[in-house]
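Intended use. Records like the one below are meant for learning the mapping from a protein sequence to its folded structure. Do not use them to infer anything beyond what is encoded.
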Amino acid sequence: MEPHSCRCQELESERVLGMNLVHLLRVGTTELPVLEGLCEALPRCLPVACEILPFDLDPAPSYHPERQQFHSSELLERVVKLVRPRDWRFLAVADIDLYIPILKYVFGEAQIGGSCALVSTYRLRQEFYGLEKDDVLLRERLLKEAVHELGHTLDLRHCQDYRCAMASSHAVEWIDLRGSTCCSFCRAQFESRLAFSEKIG
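Structure written out for the chain above:
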């Protein structure tokens, strides 16, 4: 792990929003501006504050050469070990190709009702599909995936409304159809479970 000094918001945000501080964890060679953009965007979609952690996580131990991919669940387990008792949520942001054994790839993974989630920009980039680089589209897709996985940490399940941030997506085109906010039903669930997590926190 290599230290870096970038912080997105001061801990004053934690005081204002109570326990709702999302720690963004840089995995591998994820570009710092990508994390900074997500750090600024998340509080516009969710009642949270964000902070970029001053260290990185090396994904190498989770690499499986037979698939030429990184095992998402193994990586998530390593993120969980970094969580301290007072931490609310950890969101790891990677730039590697993730998979779980039953699927060819995943855009991210989360502990359902837990404290940690993981997203990757690898298949969110237009370049992966042989198209021209589009940083704006990348930021939009990453934000949607981050909101989606954080929703899972609050025990939200997949929504049938394809426009909702909690809708499932098996291809990047489905991510583009989703919004970065939840439908009214999922938003009510989110707020209810967020209040509950604050109460027990």
